[in-house]
Amino acid sequence: MRVNGRHFRAVNWHVESAGVQWIEQRLLPHRFEQVVSVSPEDVALSIETMQVRGAPSIGAAAAYGLALAWRVDAMHFFDHWLTRFRATRPTAVNLFHACNAMLACAETSPTANQMIECAQNYADAEVAANRRIGATMAELISVGQRRILTHCNAGWLAAVDWGTATAGIYHLAAAGEKPSVWVDETRPRLQGARLTAWELNQEGIDCQIQADGAAAWMMALGKVDAIVVGADRIAANGDVANKIGTYALSLAAREHGVPMYVAAPSSTFDPACPRGRDIPIEQRDDKEVLYMDGIGEVGDIQEIRIAASGVSANNPAFDVTPNANLSGIVSEHGLWHG
Ligand code: MRU
User: Are the C-beta atoms of 177 and 142 separated by less than 8 Å?
Assistant: First the structure.
């Protein structure tokens, strides 16, 4: 999608330097910067430290990172790099799909260029899936005044291009409709306020950031026509792990009769995981809850503590929404009810 009118992907192969390039998402919306590296360890760190985040982008970064590892350190591909990438984050199953796809490719003894092609095909397939998700989703959310609520960032930054939850919104806008979006700020890392609102704004889509606690009240007031979120892992029974706060949204949606959809490519489905309660949930650093960062008067990024010193915090990064609370799950293959 576009930044100042120019097309970008969240992560890509950088031909000139034969390395991986990604958008440094921790700096947004204050600064737009791309990083290029020829070190597979840097790529693994970019996932671990959330420079690259969002399930499909994590998968694509791992695919490119493993292609890079094959190019610069093929000897340690099987005994080090696969394990290293698999350990970067636990919940988004796209990561493991991507590692398996790259393993299958490596087992055919490819050249470095063939491995890069394999990673490229992986990322391109994700983007194609998102486009198809968007077409289906656009039909489903053509309801009421097209006031859509979303949580976290399931936009193009999270999904290489187009996004999953946002793809339908972008399709509606391209068809001349005027969707408007309630963007949950998404504590503690504020992916909604920082990333989704920035993306939508760059695409000229009307949106308003709201505190997470405002979502249920907007539903009670009849101001939400549909909710669309992404997913990090979908169990075989249709239960969905997504950013913390999604489960609470689903309870309010059910209470107020608001349709709630999950948009995710098939790389987010985990048929080996029977139920939602079997999905590993990442517990992140207390610091994300206790501190905030933002931009100072001279454009420097500053971190401040917002809680009393000595107080600790609980920081589960994801929760699980039971399939029964959802109106449906949209993948590139269409609508599924679970
Ligand atoms: O911790 P994050 O920012 O990686 O979590 C991201 C989410 O929960 C997204 O909703 C999910 O990955 C879907 S991305 C299309």
Answer: yes
Assess contact for 85 and 70: CB atoms under 8 A.
no
- Which of 98, 127, 156 is the last residue before a domain boundary? 127
pLDDT value of residue 201: 97
Identify the helix (H) or strand (E) that includes residue 250: helix 246-256
**Ligand 1 pocket, mutate which of 232, 284, 330 (most atoms under 8 A from CB):** 232
Q: Is the CB of residue 108 less than 8 Å from the CB of residue 232? A: no
Question: What pTM was computed for the model?
Answer: 0.97
In terms of residue numbers, what domain contains 311?
134-336
Q: Look at the chain and count its residues.
A: 338
Series of mean pLDDT values for 10-residue runs along the chain (338 residues): 95 98 96 97 98 98 99 98 98 98 98 98 98 98 97 98 98 97 98 98 97 98 98 98 98 98 98 98 98 87 94 98 98 95
**Do residues 118 and 144 both lie within one domain?**
no
172 lines ligand 1 (CB under 6 A): no
CATH value at residue 324: 3.40.50.10470
Q: How many angstroms separate the CA atoms of 308 and 218, rounded?
A: 31
Q: Which residues are catalytic?
A: 232
**Do 161 and 308 share a structural domain?**
yes
The DSSP symbol for 53 reads -
Ligand 1 centroid distance, CA of 152 (Å):
7
**The pairing of beta strand 328-331 with beta strand 260-263:** parallel
CA–centroid distance, 295 to ligand 1, in Å, is: 24
Contact 183, 193 (CB under 8 A): yes
How far, in Å, CA of 190 to CA of 211, rounded? 10
Q: Which atom of ligand 1 is nearest to the CA of 53?
A: 4
- pLDDT for 188 equals 98
Into how many domains does the chain fold?
A: 2
Residue 144 shares a structural domain with residue 104: no
Together in a domain, 199 and 330: yes
Residue that terminates a domain, selected from 93, 111, 127 = 127
- Tokens 């939850």 correspond to 165
